[in-house]
Amino acid sequence: MSTKSPDLHAAYALDSPEDHKRLYAEWAGDYDDGFAAREDYQLHIHTARAFVSAGGQGPVLDVGAGTGLCGAVLAGLGVGPIDATDISAEMLDQALRKDIYRDAIEADLNQGIPVPRDSYSGIVSSGTFTHGHLGPEALPALLNVARTGAQFALSINAKHYESLGFADALHQLAHGQIQNLSLPEVRIYGDLAAGPNRDDTALIAMFEKI
Ligand SMILES: C[S@@+](CC[C@H](N)C(=O)[O-])C[C@H]1O[C@@H](n2cnc3c(N)ncnc32)[C@H](O)[C@@H]1O
Questions:
Q1: Mutate to test the pocket of ligand 1, among 133, 154, 160 (most ligand atoms within 8 A of CB)
Q2: 157 lines ligand 1 (CB under 6 A)
Q3: Could you confirm whether the keyword Methyltransferase appears in this record (predicted)?
């Protein structure tokens, strides 16, 4: 275990699933009160609000749920039931403490999600489609577990969107698998953020499964 506490810089440089598990195991206890509070993290709020504004309903899967920040906003907006999935058992432990999730599913999204097809009417994700984390190759697994008509709200770091070719992947899916695609851009952090990423933005990929 390193002596330096985990931070965004370290998270963006992650490579293997084992690296993710190691870093997030270390970060889980301090993520909300440290990183999220200090950087005035807002992306989970934008993502949950966009989902609800589009008419999104439960059951919802929160992908890369982490400590449950997005799920907590969704629950506060009256959405449920919500399941959490994440590669990190320690992050899911923190999420379960919020007492808003029906179930917690430990899984590497790049290996699929161990739930039956057509399980969810909504899929949300905040902060997990980003540098060193999930790319567009994870999208088919999410479509598999979504029902026809399911609403998606997936935040994607704007620079990651460009560098990993999300535009091509989404436009290919738009030929018969998804519809009503829109990509509102939001700031990831609020006015109190001080770190080098304070002005970073994300696109929220909003679409429905056909
Ligand atoms: C930056 S955190 C975001 C957490 C939360 N959604 C939020 O907005 O605060 C990214 C999360 O993605 C998870 N993650 C990274 N790679 C993953 C993978 N391959 N499969 C599932 N979860 C993954 C991490 O464990 C971590 O909890």
A1: 133
A2: no
A3: yes
Find out whether the beta carbon of 95 lies less than 6 Å from any atom of ligand 1.
no
Ligand 1 lined by 88 (C-beta under 6 Å): yes
Q: What CATH code is assigned to 8-209? A: 3.40.50.150
Q: Which two tokens stand for residue 199?
A: 């002005």
Q: Mean pLDDT check: name the lowest of 52-61, 94-103, 129-138.
A: 129-138
Token reading at 88:
């990190």
86 ligand 1 Cβ < 6 A: yes
Q: How far is 138 from 136, CA to CA, in rounded Å? A: 5
pTM for the model stands at 0.96
pLDDT band at 81 (very low <50, low <70, confident <90, very high): very high
Encoded amino acid at 184, one letter: P
pLDDT tens digits, residue range 128-160?
A: 999 888 999 999 999 999 999 999 999 999 999
Bridge pairing between strands 103-106 and 185-187? unpaired
- Coil, strand or helix at 84: strand
Ligand 1 pocket test target in 7, 18, 20 with most atoms within 8 Å of CB: 20
